[in-house]
Amino acid sequence: MRTAHVFSATGDAALRKAMVQRLQQLGGISIDEVLDPSAAAAGDVLVTTTLGFSPAQCADLVADGVKVIVLAPLPSSDQERAYASAGAVYLPMTMDVEPLHAEILRQAVATGA
Fold first, then answer.
1. Contact 55, 78 (CB under 8 A)
2. d(Cα 7, Cα 46) in Å, to the nearest integer?
3. Quick one: pLDDT at residue 40?
4. What is the Rg, in whole angstroms, of the alpha carbon atoms belonging to the chain?
5. What distance in Å separates the CA atoms of residue 102 and residue 95, rounded to the nearest whole number?
6. How far, rounded to the nearest angstrom, does the alpha carbon of residue 10 sit from its chain's CA centroid?
7. 14 burial level (CB within 10 Å; 0-12, 13-18, 19+)
8. Phi-psi category of residue 100: left, alpha or beta, with phi > 0 → left and psi -120 to 50 → alpha
9. In whole angstroms, what is the distance from residue 72 CA to residue 46 CA?
10. pLDDT score recorded for residue 78
């Protein structure tokens, strides 16, 4: 089983809890809820939103070896390009968490977590 750290800069505890529970139900990963994004270390998989981190902040995390997945509540192609240039994976935020789950698994395998 892979372990990934889920970071939330939105402060929405209910959304974070629902997301973590649903991802754990899908299996294959163990999720550690971490509220302090500065705790992210090389090899961690960080899940955040476009409101939580700017592309520049994501670039800094990626440079430190953190795998960043950005959920976009209102996706746009310009925003997607900016986050992709920063080295982050950009996903539309939807009620269907299967694409996020698959990406966390992919990132965790890539880091050997």
1. no
2. 6
3. 80
4. 13
5. 14
6. 12
7. exposed
8. alpha
9. 14
10. 97
Our CA dihedral for 90, 46, 2, 100, rounded to 10 degrees, sits at -30
Locate tokens 């698994």: which residue? 105
Give me the tens of pLDDT residue by residue for the chain, a chain 113 residues long: 555 566 655 567 787 788 888 888 888 777 776 667 777 888 888 888 898 889 999 999 999 999 999 989 899 999 999 999 999 999 998 888 888 888 888 888 765 55
Alpha carbon distances (Å) from 4 to 41, 67, 75, 85, 110: 11, 10, 24, 23, 12
> How many angstroms separate the CA atoms of 87 and 1, rounded?
25
- Number of C-beta neighbours around residue 47 at 10 A: 26
Locus of tokens 């670039």: 59
Tokens of 34: 């971490």
Of 102, 45, 52, nearest in space to 73 by CA:
52
β-bridge partners, 89: 69
